[in-house]
Design the sequence.
């Protein structure tokens, strides 16, 4: 079906027409009431319409009259190319191995080593167990007095070597020596010469 609107002035007529099933809008104008009209057709550009036909994070490209194509922006995806969602690498492209994958943005992520492990390349990958005893005797104190024993990745136990002590097994020290002074008193019980001691029964 076609609708038209006609307006007439003293020397010109303007006709605006739109076909309900067409992909074009048309305008017809004449320079006189009896002259032939000039029709100009303009293709409908859906990409310029509001609301956006492709949604957020998608680019709209006209492909013809009333036709368009939607393409997701970098870091986003959609089956149709419209109404795109962020790409989660931790789900779609996890390359962290045994490490934790942390989503940081569309198509972006970082790898984090498990507790007690560290990465030799500082990128959170290829993590290795941390032996605390290899660094500063594990914080147990002097190696000459205290023994550090690794009990697992990032954990250790401290104990005193023989001859040393500590309340918690750390920073052991030699036992405190208490010096005791013993005083001996001598009592003279010698009986003087010439003295007789008699016992009566």
Sequence:
């Amino acid at each position: 079906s076609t609708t038209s609107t006609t307006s007439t002035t003293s020397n010109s007529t303007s006709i605006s027409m739109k076909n309900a099933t067409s992909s074009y809008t048309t305008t017809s104008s004449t320079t006189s009431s009896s002259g032939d009209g000039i029709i100009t057709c303009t293709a409908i550009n859906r990409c310029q319409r509001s609301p956006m036909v492709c949604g957020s994070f998608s680019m709209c490209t006209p492909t013809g009259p009333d036709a368009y194509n939607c393409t997701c922006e970098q870091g986003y995806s959609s089956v149709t190319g419209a109404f795109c969602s962020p790409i989660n690498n931790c789900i779609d492209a996890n390359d962290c191995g045994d490490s934790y994958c942390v989503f940081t943005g569309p198509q972006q992520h970082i790898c984090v080593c498990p507790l007690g492990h560290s990465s030799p390349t500082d990128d959170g990958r290829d993590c290795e167990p941390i032996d605390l005893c290899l660094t500063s005797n594990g914080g147990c104190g002097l190696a000459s007095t205290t023994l550090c024993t690794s009990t697992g990745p990032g954990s250790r136990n401290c104990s005193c070597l023989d001859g040393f002590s500590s309340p918690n097994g750390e920073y052991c020290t030699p036992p405190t020596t208490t010096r005791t002074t013993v005083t001996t008193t001598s009592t003279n019980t010698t009986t003087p010469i010439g003295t007789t001691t008699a016992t009566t029964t």
